[in-house]
Specification:
This protein is α/β, with parallel strands linked by helices and 241 residues long. The protein has a single domain, classed as Rossmann fold (3-Layer(aba) Sandwich). It contains eight helices and nine strands. The strands form two sheets. The chain has a seven-stranded mixed beta sheet with strand order 5-4-3-6-7-9-8, sandwiched between helices. A two-stranded antiparallel sheet has the order 1-2. A hairpin with a 7-residue loop joins strand 8 and strand 9. It is globular and about 50 Å long. The protein starts with 23 loop residues before the first strand and ends in a 10-residue tail after the last strand. The relative contact order is 0.15. One of its GO terms (biological process) is methylation. InterPro entries: Methyltransf_12 (IPR013217), SAM-dependent_MTases_sf (IPR029063). This is Polysaccharide biosynthesis protein/methyltransferase, putative. Pfam families: Methyltransf_12. Keywords: Methyltransferase, S-adenosyl-L-methionine, Transferase.
């Protein structure tokens, strides 16, 4: 996952084994994703299982309607969904797509590479102040850019995050964004993304949403689970951020 720069941090107990302690605690963002991947006793967010749940199945079904040569999975974590795209999606000539995963955590990237050697992984932080000079060499020219469940961790500078996300794609590229809303009445980022309509509005600044799906899965407490897919908007003839 990608971190939130400039947000107040909360101290994490030394080497907590609960991955939640590294993400949100006491109503504030911690955002220590490197610590989370180093010390969590279980797979964060159960990524291995959730890469095959209903939310993931819907995303794959959306993407199978199209063909992509090169795909970038932003906030890939341990790469389980990245690898699923590699196995199930194909390019225009029927060849397997090239799939690259980006994550802020070097530990996550290292483990993802060991788990899924048929994919490429690199460290990348969309909200780094040094993004123009630190963005990975692989971070450009994609037919499809994907961001699943990441927006809550970049919400304090959402405009920059979305612009840089879109900038990973080639001209004429497409985007898939998936986001689940929390089951609580209040949450971090609610003042920016307080509803599915607000999410749609923010995404529409960088993409023309051709497919919009909102599901309510009992497994996730019946909260809105939003999927958006469509072509990215041109950046007024200038190079993408």
């Amino acid at each position: 996952m990608l971190p939130l720069h400039g947000q107040a941090r909360v101290t994490v107990p030394d080497r907590s084994k609960d991955y939640h302690d590294y993400v949100f605690k006491d109503g504030k963002l911690v955002g220590d994703f490197e610590g989370m991947y180093r010390y969590s006793e279980e797979v964060p967010w159960h990524q291995d299982a959730n890469a095959f749940d209903t939310i993931a199945d819907i995303d794959i079904a959306i993407l199978k309607r199209h063909r992509f040569d090169r795909i970038c999975d932003v906030g890939c974590g341990l790469g389980h969904f990245t690898a699923r795209m590699k196995r199930e999606l194909v390019g225009p000539c029927g060849q397997p797509s090239e799939v690259v995963g980006l994550d802020v955590s070097p530990t996550a990237v290292e483990r993802a590479g060991a788990l899924h050697p048929d994919c490429r992984f690199a460290v990348g932080d969309l909200l780094s102040p040094d993004w123009p000079t630190t963005r990975p060499a692989v971070a450009s020219g994609y037919d499809l850019v994907v961001m699943r469940g990441v927006l809550w961790y970049v919400v304090q500078d959402l405009g920059t995050a979305l612009a840089r996300f879109a900038g990973l794609a080639r001209d004429g590229g497409a985007a898939l964004v998936t986001l689940s809303f929390p089951p609580s009445r209040t949450w971090v980022g609610q003042d920016t993304i307080g509803s599915q309509d607000e999410l749609h509005r923010h995404l529409s600044t960088v993409m023309d949403i051709a497919y919009w799906c909102v599901e309510r899965d009992a497994k996730h407490g019946g909260v809105p689970l939003c999927h958006a897919f469509g072509p990215l908007r041109p950046v007024d003839g200038r190079p993408r951020p």
